[in-house]
TrEMBL record:
The Mn(2+) ion enhances activity. Transmembrane segments: none annotated. Coiled coil: none annotated. SUPFAM superfamilies: Bacterial exopeptidase dimerisation domain, Zn-dependent exopeptidases. Mn(2+) binds at C148, H150, E184, H208, H405. It comes from Alteribacter lacisalsi. Pfam families: M20_dimer (PF07687), Peptidase_M20 (PF01546). This is Peptidase M20.
Length: 436
């Protein structure tokens, strides 16, 4: 017998400890060197074959990799934190993430599970009542924060790994754990997909803490309303000039960018369904008396279908070219991340619902929760389904004192145990179903 609740209760202190450690050391996409190291160190004690660096992902399939200077700075920080030189060399230049595989030695299905590990460029709140501040595990990195629960997802992944290790003799088949970098910006999943990790999966499980404000103990067996998305960078290049002496000689990149932003947010809605656009950053100029030569902005498009997202993206390109022409500057447009639409398999959702009866701590199972956002896990879901497997993306309920990506984002740490139980019960159910 596998006593899930007893096992989860014993794991709970570890779950909280892992989560808090990752929360203190947030690293954004493709710079998760310390995070990769800590995951690798924990998994190396267990019965897994581990893959990192070039063995983990396809370099050419990575999107939105930071500039060399940012990567070097993150590597130096990792070196100072104690990351061994041999490991750092393998994951250098942004080749972060870990894949762990286990073969139980007994015939059975291959089950893949994904856990995202990156943080966001958000400066965490330092106000009373914010748990990480009150309990002393607020982000130690200014301008970096786990504001989307990936610290919790990573902790859940490590707990699942311990469960598989401790119960491998009672389970069947093969397990693949994907600790994925660079989910934010939809930049990392394709690099693991293209390595082939999902090509033989009979089952795929993913999950997310929060999304909706729900009681702890509530899970959703699946998700819907994944929005297709494109993340873009846009650089305008003009000509600098003295703003007083020779203003006519300048070509103002800042004005081109400003005109572009205003018009991007005026793109007409589409009769075919919901669309989104957001410009998240705009940086331009070098001094008050200088015609700005450079302007940079970053943004994203979304749509409830690929066609709708493509409509917004093409309009974005057209407007950026028009704004550049208006001010006599050039525009360099590039896509640096993509997510697509996906649907969870009803058969697997039913299995997850049945599996939840193995634990008394999961008190309610919803069929589906609408994501209403984008997730590059869709690349994994679609690859598994294309190869004939079943896939689903679960939601783990928790009260949310502030929304995702907010400086005061946090969650009830009791949800960590519920997230673990959702994965562990599903894995157990899959194994026993196949055995029957």
């Amino acid at each position: 017998m596998i006593h899930l609740d007893e096992y989860a209760d014993r794991l709970e202190p570890l779950l909280k400890g892992w989560r808090r450690q990752f929360h203190r050391e947030p690293e954004t996409g493709w710079t998760e060197y310390r995070t990769t190291w800590r995951i690798y160190e924990e998994l190396s004690r267990l019965s897994f074959t581990l893959y990192i660096g070039d063995d983990c992902l396809v370099n050419e399939a990575r999107m939105g990799v930071p500039a060399e200077a940012e990567l070097r700075k993150a590597e130096e920080k990792a070196r100072a934190a104690g990351v061994p030189e041999t490991l750092l060399k393998q994951i250098s230049r942004g080749r972060t993430g870990v894949v762990a595989t286990m073969d139980t030695g007994k015939p059975g299905p291959e089950t893949a599970m994904r856990f995202d590990i990156d943080a966001l460029p958000v400066n965490e709140a330092s106000v009373p009542g914010h748990l990480p501040e009150d309990q002393g595990f607020r982000s130690a990195e200014e301008g970096r924060m786990h504001a989307c629960a990936h610290d919790g997802h990573t902790a859940i992944g490590l707990a699942v790994a311990h469960f598989l290790h401790d119960h491998q003799h009672q389970l069947r088949g093969t397990f693949v754990l994907l600790f994925q970098p660079a989910e934010e910006g939809s930049r990392g999943a394709k690099a693991m997909v293209e390595k082939g990790w999902l090509d033989h999966a009979d089952y795929f499980l993913g999950g997310h803490i929060g999304i909706e404000d729900l009681p702890v103990g509530t899970i959703s067996a699946g998700s819907d309303q994944f929005l297709a998305t494109s993340k873009f960078d846009l650089a305008f290049t003009g000509t600098a000039a003295h703003a007083g002496k020779r203003p006519e000689e300048g070509k103002n990149a800042l004005l081109a960018a400003a005109a572009c932003v205003q018009n991007l947010h005026s793109i007409a809605p589409h009769s075919g369904g919901a669309t989104r656009l957001n410009v998240g950053t705009l940086k331009a100029g070098s001094g008050r008396n200088i015609i700005p030569e450079q302007a940079y902005l970053t943004g994203e498009t979304r749509g409830e279908t690929e066609e709708l997202n493509r409509y917004v993206l093409e309009e974005t390109k057209r407007i950026s070219e028009a704004a550049a022409a208006m001010y006599g500057v050039t525009a360099d447009f590039s896509v640096c991340g993509t997510g697509t639409v996906a649907a969870c398999d009803q058969e697997l959702k039913q299995l997850i619902t049945k599996a939840a009866s193995r634990t008394d701590q999961v008190t309610q199972v919803l069929d589906s929760v609408s994501l209403g956002a984008s997730e590059d896990v869709t690349h994994m879901i679609n690859r598994v389904q294309k190869k004939g497997g079943l896939a689903s993306y679960m939601i783990f309920g928790t009260p949310l004192p502030a929304g995702h990506h907010h400086p005061s984002f946090d969650f009830d740490e009791a949800v960590l145990k519920i997230g673990f139980l959702a994965f562990a019960s599903a894995v157990t159910e899959i194994s026993l179903t196949e055995e029957e």
